[in-house]
Amino acid sequence: MRILLVMDPLIPVPPRHYGGIERVIADLAAGLVARGHEVTLWAAPSSSTPARLEPFGREGEWTRFSNVRNTLHLAARFWLRPGRFDVVHNFGRLAYLTPIASWRIAKVQTYMRRIDPAKIRGAVRLAGRRGGPTLRFTAVSDVIRKTGEPGGGDWSVIYNCAPVARYTPRYDVDAATAPLVFLGRLERCKGAHSAIDVAERLDRTLLIAGNLSDLPEEKVYFETEIAPRIDGQRVRFLGPVDDAAKNQLLGSAAALLLPIEWLEPFPVVLPEALACATPVVAFRQGGVPEGIDHGRTGFLCDTVDEMAALVRRLPEIDRHTCRAEAERRFSDTAIVGEYEALYRELLEKLPARS
After folding, report:
1. Pairing relation of β-strands 87-90 and 106-111?
2. Which pLDDT score, from 0 to 100, does residue 64 have?
3. Looking at residue 82, what is its pLDDT?
């Protein structure tokens, strides 16, 4: 198949540090190329991929003007070379599909956050009778799918993946003494403050890694509620980590803590932790419960007290099971296969030319 993958050019594919969906796109592109497909990626200029990279936009720029400019630029690309692709899979703004909404071409729009049903209704109307059967929406969790489904259209759930071969499973970690890990953007909704609460109550080491937010209110959050509690002993801040450091960090942890406080779609760090054979202890929010088999690959809870109690039960978890589930459900091989099957399904439904 001739497949086009599209992503907003805000940060490169894959990201250098933080970035969830950009990692998934990078793994999807590599997996599709390995399966013999002709893959093109429209993404940020400094992206790196085995696919054919056709960059656009300016990294770090996200304004109303830049979004309009990018949309018009991609529209021109489509119109100048119609029929170039069999499948267009968009991970960026839904507006990028507007110029080809009614074309007889397989179109996929993937969402990794809460969805506005009104935008879905608009896209379905644009697709109309001719384009509708070949327009499919996918969400990275069932929770996210339910936010978009009221807008209509056909939906599938395909989870985020982790390239399991890149992660080294560690089965010899002492669950009772090894560090706990928090890995994510340092914003209140991610819950680093609750992870610190758990570590302090249990007198356990907590390693915090991730990017600092550029938002003023989140900077205040870090400076007032997180930084004063980093003592360099029980609570340590490592800053952003690359893939090699992440592999070491997650693999040596007793558990990844995800005390999230929002409708978390499906964090990429969840399958990454499982790929390292590391269990996940999380608040029961958003799509996270869909990725954890309670009592087998981690634990689900609702409060700091419950999380602290469940961390004490980590020796009950078989780390081999965590790795096995990562391979079965969330590996790049599994997820690339699901997208590939979806593309073929859409191509089979392609409306006949009249």
Report:
1. parallel
2. 87
3. 87
Rounded to whole angstroms, the Cα distance separating 298 from 142 reads 20
DSSP classification of residue 207: E
pLDDT of residue 130: 46
C-alpha 159/C-alpha 175 separation (Å) is 27
Tell whether omega for the bond before 14 is within 30 degrees of 0, i.e. cis.
Answer: yes
Neighbour count for residue 112 (Cβ, 10 Å):
20
**Rounded distance, CA 186 to CA 218, Å?**
7
> From the CB of residue 130, how many other CB atoms can be counted at a distance below 10 Å?
14
Give the containing element (helix H, strand E) for 258.
Answer: strand 255-258
The residue type of 132 is G
Q: Are 73 and 45 in contact (CB under 8 A)?
A: no
Q: Compute mean pLDDT per 10 residues along the chain, 354 residues long, and list them.
A: 96 82 94 98 96 94 90 94 94 93 92 93 79 83 96 95 95 97 96 98 97 93 97 94 93 98 95 98 97 98 98 98 98 97 92 56
Chain centroid to Cα 89, Å, comes to: 15
Per DSSP, the three-state class of 349 is coil
CB-CB neighbours of 154 under 10 Å: 15
Beta carbons of 315 and 176 less than 8 angstroms apart: yes
Cα–Cα distance between 100 and 145 in angstroms, integer?
Answer: 23
Q: What is the largest CA-CA distance in the chain?
A: 71
Nearest in space to 307 (alpha carbons), one of 335, 275, 279 = 279
3-state secondary structure of 53: strand
